[in-house]
Amino acid sequence: MRRLLVITVTLTLASCAHLPRATPVADASLPQPAADHLPVPAPSDWHLDAPAEGQPLSGNATAMTLGVSRGGHSVDLQLILFDDRDCDLRVIDQPEDWSGGGKITECMRKAGAVAGVNGGFFTPEFKPMGLMIADGEKIGAWQTGPLLTGAVVVDARPQLLWNAEMRTREARHLLQAGPRLVDAARPVTGLERVKHTTRTFIATDGAHRWLLGLAHGVSLGELGEILATPGLVPGFQVHRALNLDGGRSSALYYRTADGQEHADPGWSTVRNYLGIVPR
Is the model's pLDDT at 20 over the cut of 70? Predict the structure, then answer.
C-alpha cells in the first residue's frame, strides 16, 4: 500500500499499540480443528464463471486462476495452493527501500521459493507495521487494533492465528496482518464494502492445506464472502482467511514444475513477502 495510505492506518493504530514482555506467538495447547470437523460453510450466491485452470509447481503446489461473479460483478483470482507437509511457509524480509515491485522475483529465487506474494503493511519509514520475524530475526513490535487482527505464525508448521490466541513462545517466522476475512468457514461481518481494489490474502482449510492469492477489483467484505463460498476452489474449503497488504503493493510470483517463471510484480516496493519453499 502506498505510503500516504499507510500514514492514516499508522495513526489509527498508534493509540492502541503496545509492546509485550515477550514475543506473542502460537500457544501450542490450542486445539487445531480437524478437516472433517469444520463448521458448515455459509451459503453464498457467488459462483464460478468457468472451470478453474491450474498449473503444477514444484513441491506438489499448484498455481490456479479462476473467475467468480455475482449480480453482474466479476472478480478474478490468482491462487497458489500448497500442503504444509510438502512445503514450508517463510517470511522473506526485503529492507531495500525503493527497490521496486519487481524485487519479488529476486527475493523468491534467493529463498528457493516456488511461489509467493507480498506480505504485510509497512510504515512511511519502511518498517514493518506490527511484528515481523524472518528466520528468527525480530523486527518491529506487537500491535493490536482494528487492522492488525491476526498473524501468520510458522514454527514446526504454519498457523493462522487471531490476536486472542497468541501467547509467549518463539517462532521462526511471524507476520502480523489483517483484517480477518473468514473465521470458522464463515465470512467475517462488518468489513468495508465500498473500495474495490486488488487484495492479497492467505487462507487455510484448518488442517494442512493453504492458499495464497490475489483478488482483483473486490472489497474486503466481498472477498470474505467469496473465500467462504463452498466449491469455488476445487477440493478446498476455507476455514480461516487473513487479508495482507493490497492495492499497489499486491504482487505474486510462481515457478512452474518445468522451470518457467511468472511474475505479477505490482507497482510498489514492499517490506516483506510470504514465500512457499518445498521441504
Answer: no
